[in-house]
Recover the amino acids of this structure.
């Protein structure tokens, strides 16, 4: 099965399980709206690629990890889109959950998805208890306080922002989760894989800033110029477009250099290059990293 | 150490860990505001009592379970109090998190606490992996979709409510979690303990309806008459005060009868009676169950 099919199947199974009757129908539908058909699935693709590079000897563990990570990412999007945060109308070309359903159901959708992510990993404990606990530990660390994506969002309520901690937790955390969980799912030491995740996260942040500054709403599938409107720090503001592109190129070279020695090293380097192209359709030179 | 001290210590340790620097200070403070000094700690008290009745051979597992359950309960209170749900101003005699901090920080506080609860149990995996995974499974089942407290809150957005599923998930779920997690933490079969939790949950729901109908705001520490305002089903509306008291007495007798045979059986029956008194200060006859 290709990576996309593995991710799709694993995520769909979790959503189906959460929709067992009797359960409230609107919330059950909202879960599906938030997760399917999904976006580029960047994080679980990286996760499965790292698992494959590490041998992927227990694919059920990697599939559970990929589903859990994607579900957490979707939960964060639903809550980030709420009126009290980004107040976004459109996500992945569809109305956001609070517009399509309601604000209460959007809060509950995010909450239910967070729980679902941990549930998926817990169930994988039946296959390998030790790896499941390792995966649970990585996911909670990169999601909650003090250093996960909740912390990242929390920095935006501070009057003085620790920019490095902000970016690391806001965008970097789930990329570190992706590389570390991919390794842990295949029984490898996750610590060696932190740097690759962190660098991909940095690259993604800069690429997102470039897209936010250069693309139109139709290409993005969400409103543009949100960083300026919400007064968030942005690489294009700090470095200009040319400076931000140079920075992106440097980060991606570092990412490729940081890949630990493993059978799938060349394949992973290729993946990082491909992600770079996908991230920055308007800056073709980046693809030459 | 008495039960209250065990719960307090375990919860405080988790909050402290989530406040490690660098992390956003306001969110770190909001976590503490939501969890400490806390209310009656009914659910973790039941959990530890069941663990003790089952021998409590690994107290670290029971302490982790108690902290995780109380933290999930606090998370649900923070989100339930949000403007889009109950729009409550006061909780446990203090301003609610969204009033004391902000609505974004209240959403993030709930999210971070959900993650923290699963993190506490994951860490306990270092003591006993099998029990930790059992505890994680119970907590996710009783918290998320389709049958946990998220589902319970979700029923309130439906035009046709399955009343039995609604009460079981909205109030019952975390009491079932309390008895089952207490048993699982001590290495006992959690299934046998479901009925006790479900019955305590029913009793608590009826008692809450009585308090909501009969008490003043100062006694409750939160606004009264919320069920009528929010058009939620209520036992006092359906049965009258006298009928609701009779129903409460019947449920508590059933709860005591359902306690599985174990060394701590008599102690547990005493605990249920004590909880009944605490729940219904204005209906002294209930204490004679």
């Amino acid at each position: 099965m290709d990576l996309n099919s593995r991710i799709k199947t694993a995520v769909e199974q979790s959503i189906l399980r959460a929709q067992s009757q009797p359960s409230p129908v609107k919330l059950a539908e909202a879960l599906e709206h938030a997760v399917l058909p999904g976006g580029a699935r960047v994080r679980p693709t990286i996760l499965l690629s790292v698992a494959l590079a590490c041998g992927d000897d227990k694919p059920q563990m990697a599939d559970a990890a990929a589903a859990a990570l994607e579900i957490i990412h979707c939960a964060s999007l639903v809550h980030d889109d709420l009126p009290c945060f980004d107040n976004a109308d459109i996500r992945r070309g569809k109305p956001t959950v609070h517009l399509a359903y309601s604000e209460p159901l959007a809060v509950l959708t995010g909450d239910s998805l967070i729980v679902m992510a941990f549930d998926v990993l817990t169930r994988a404990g039946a296959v390998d208890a030790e790896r499941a606990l390792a995966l649970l530990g990585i996911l909670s660390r990169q999601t909650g306080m003090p250093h996960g994506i909740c912390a990242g969002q929390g920095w935006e309520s501070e009057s003085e922002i620790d920019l490095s901690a902000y970016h690391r937790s806001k965008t970097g955390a789930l990329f570190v989760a992706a590389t570390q969980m991919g390794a842990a799912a295949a029984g490898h030491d996750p610590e060696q894989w932190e740097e690759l995740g962190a660098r991909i996260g940095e690259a993604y942040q800069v690429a997102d800033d470039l897209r936010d500054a250069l693309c139109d709403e139709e290409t993005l599938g969400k409103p543009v110029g949100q960083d300026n409107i919400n007064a968030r720090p942005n690489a294009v503001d700090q470095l200009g477009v040319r400076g931000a592109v140079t920075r992106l190129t440097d980060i991606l070279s570092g990412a490729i250099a940081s890949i630990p020695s493993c059978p799938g090293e060349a394949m992973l380097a290729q993946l990082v290059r491909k992600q770079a192209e996908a991230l920055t359709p308007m800056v073709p030179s980046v693809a030459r990293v």
